[in-house]
Automatic annotation (TrEMBL):
It comes from the Bacteria. Residues 138-203 form the MobA/VirD2-like nuclease domain. InterPro entries: DUF3363 (IPR021795), Endonuclease_MobA/VirD2 (IPR005094). It comes from Hyphococcus flavus. Pfam families: DUF3363 (PF11843), Relaxase (PF03432). This is DUF3363 domain-containing protein.
Length: 652
């Protein structure tokens, strides 16, 4: 035997799995098999309790997982569903009210009108009553329902009601919800707010499997019933359209699932359908090769380790370009687009607001489109409450939040530094024996989130390869997620500032000897405004040109500003038919907040009484109390408001 072959089998005990090397090999084998046929080759050993099937709809959710690939899913109409469970806590009513205002924002309807709130049995729902009924709820669910063919549906309201009625049957309880349709993006979608109570008044707990699969399955079924199944030709066209997309597609998902150690070799196929699929994958691989995300090898194609993260980032970048184009219109120049907070972004920018739009509907985030003083066009994430965004023409300064990695990132980096750049659950347990399984699981979830951003690599055996610059990249990742810190330099346009009889941010720039950062676009306009401002101050006797600089007489300018404010107040008094009453330090201020004014001196709130009114500096926190009676004390030019103790009385 030994002369004919070097192979000599070594028989072990029955059902023995061997040592560590064998177990690692088996783990890689099962991982590859599971990628090829998800759910079929999953190991049946003891698994840690995850709580995925706790709550209503657990059985259906598990059935959807098990049978999801048994049906001809490619013929189903597709739908995307995002669901968040939001704990309301002590300030829950305020957060819920803010979210409801956000989804009813201006421009949500087809005609540009504000979003219309509707419910299970009425086309006009009472948002205040809905919030009042849910005042004591522990949590609520916020759902974004986006059928792929929403434009072909006759009525989104009826479709949403059918989906929620199916969910009621699945969950075995009546659901209390309101919804708003949005038509202000490329894909019409629905925002649903679902109370966290069942019809018996208990906390509504929905199984994770149903949240992950159940809602989407029902949404796809109902869209298919209404529009009919997708034709083979439509499916083929849809798949073919994915070949050149600069985003993560279903073709990429198949390539990643079929890859062994990063290499994929599409089979030729025996049937016409299999050959069609192979041709699609090969065409996609050639596109990825042009993007430097795949390379040909002798045995197939090697995929880039960060393929998914890179393509998802490219898709997000495409969404940013489309949203900026919608916000800026003909002014938008993609070559000048920059994202504030991205790699290479300066720590501070100044720009003019050109437009705004939705940045992340799932988290109620908006963005501002800025014409920067440096000649670029900036996309700046804005995390303010509804109604607090600076208007078009306003000038703002955005600065980056301090970059800092998380404590979990530092733990991962410390473990990786001691094990040649590798991290795993076993290494973590050995490093810190007191760390619980749940604590270690949180670190793995963190790594999954970072992997999707292109930071770190997960290997087939479950270990992670941690890059040498891990902490620097995670700090940048955190800084990019944090909203920019914004300061409004002027609530009015630049044209109104050059000759404004009040102190403006132009005067601050003159005092500091600053100049514009560019000669194009807003930068050029800012240069001209600064020159005009200097000349105007000299002509008005409010400044002097000296050998060592330019000196502004602050007292004279302040007196001129006070006179200008009185003039504005008199004009407003004639309009309101009321007497203006100025405020002084230490004085208690009380009145109904009715409107706000944007002036060269800043943004002011109008507080009215029966026969008089006053002007006070506006603050974002006031916006939620518009139309209500508020009270505070003026201290050093600003008001300390007593919102918690304010009570509104009828007739005031």
């Amino acid at each position: 035997m030994r002369a004919d072959s070097d192979f000599q089998p070594r028989l072990g005990r029955i059902r023995a799995q061997g040592g560590k090397a064998s177990k690692r090999y088996l783990a890689r084998l099962y991982t590859a098999m599971e990628k090829a046929r998800p759910g079929v080759f999953a190991r049946r050993g003891r698994t840690r309790f995850m709580g995925a099937q706790i709550g209503r709809g657990a059985g259906l959710g598990a059935a959807f997982i098990a049978n999801g690939r048994a049906f001809a899913r490619q013929h189903m109409r597709r739908a995307a569903v995002k669901i968040r469970s939001v704990r309301l806590g002590a300030n829950g009513l305020g957060k819920a009210r803010a979210h409801l205002r956000y989804i009813q924002r201006d421009g949500a309807e087809k005609d540009g009108a504000p979003g219309k709130l509707y419910g299970p049995d009425r086309d006009v729902a009472d948002g205040k009553a809905f919030l009042e009924e849910g005042r004591g709820d522990r949590h609520q669910f916020r759902i974004i329902l986006s059928p792929e063919d929403a434009g072909e549906l006759d009525d989104l309201n009826s479709y949403t009601r059918a989906v929620m009625a199916a969910a009621e049957r699945d969950l075995g309880t009546r659901l209390d919800w309101v919804a708003v349709n949005h038509h202000d993006t490329d894909h019409p979608h629905v925002h649903i707010v679902l109370r966290g109570r069942d019809d018996q008044g208990r906390d509504l707990v929905i199984a994770r499997d149903y949240i992950t699969h159940g809602f989407r399955k029902r949404a796809e079924e109902i869209a298919t019933l209404e529009l009919g199944p997708r034709r083979d030709l439509d499916i083929a066209r849809g798949r073919h359209a994915e070949i050149d997309k600069e985003r993560f597609t279903s073709l990429d998902r198949k390539l990643c699932a079929a890859a062994m150690d990063g290499v994929v070799a599409p089979s030729h196929g025996r049937t016409a359908y299999e050959r069609f699929q192979t041709n699609l994958l090969l065409a996609r691989l050639r596109t990825l090769e042009k993007m430097r995300l795949a390379a040909r090898e002798k045995d197939g194609w090697r995929l880039a380790p960060d393929l998914e993260g890179t393509l998802r980032e490219a898709g997000r970048r495409g969404d940013v370009i489309r949203s900026m184009g919608a916000a800026m219109g003909l002014q938008f120049e993609p070559a000048k687009l920059r994202e504030f907070g991205a790699a290479g972004s300066p720590p501070r920018i100044v720009g003019r607001v050109v437009g705004e739009g939705a940045a992340d509907d799932a988290h109620d985030k908006r963005f501002l489109a800025l014409d920067g003083a440096d000649g670029n066009q900036w996309h700046v994430a804005f995390d303010g409450a509804s109604g607090t965004a600076p208007p078009e023409g306003a000038i703002i300064e955005a600065s980056l939040a301090s970059a800092a990695s998380r404590k979990s990132d530092r733990t991962i980096a410390e473990i990786a530094a001691r094990h040649d750049g590798m991290y795993s659950d076993a290494l973590h347990a050995r490093h810190d024996p007191s760390a619980s399984p749940e604590y270690r699981l949180a670190h793995k979830r963190r790594l999954e989130a970072l992997r999707r951003a292109g930071i770190g690599e997960r290997l087939a055996d479950g270990t992670w390869r941690i890059p040498a610059d891990f902490l620097e990249r995670t700090a940048q990742f955190e800084a990019a997620k944090a909203p920019a810190q914004m300061r409004t330099l002027s609530w009015v346009g630049l044209d109104a500032l050059a000759t404004a009889p009040v102190r403006t941010f132009l005067d601050e720039a003159i005092d500091k000897g600053e100049d514009s950062r560019g000669a194009l676009g807003f930068g050029g306009a800012l240069q001209k405004a600064l020159a005009t401002r200097r000349n105007w101050l000299l002509a008005q006797g409010l400044a002097q040109a000296k050998e060592n600089g330019f000196s502004i007489d602050q007292d004279k300018l302040a007196a001129r500003g006070a006179a200008a404010m009185n003039a504005h107040a008199e004009t407003l008094g004639r309009k309101l038919g009321k007497t203006f009453v100025p405020t002084e330090d230490g004085e208690t201020i009380k009145g109904r907040f009715t409107e706000r004014l944007d002036l060269p001196a800043g943004r002011f709130a109008v507080l009215e009484k029966s026969k008089e009114f006053t002007l006070v500096p506006w603050r974002p926190v006031m916006e939620a109390r518009r139309g209500r009676l508020i009270e505070g004390v003026m201290e050093r030019g600003r008001v300390n408001w007593n919102f918690g103790r304010t009570r509104s009385r009828p007739g005031r």
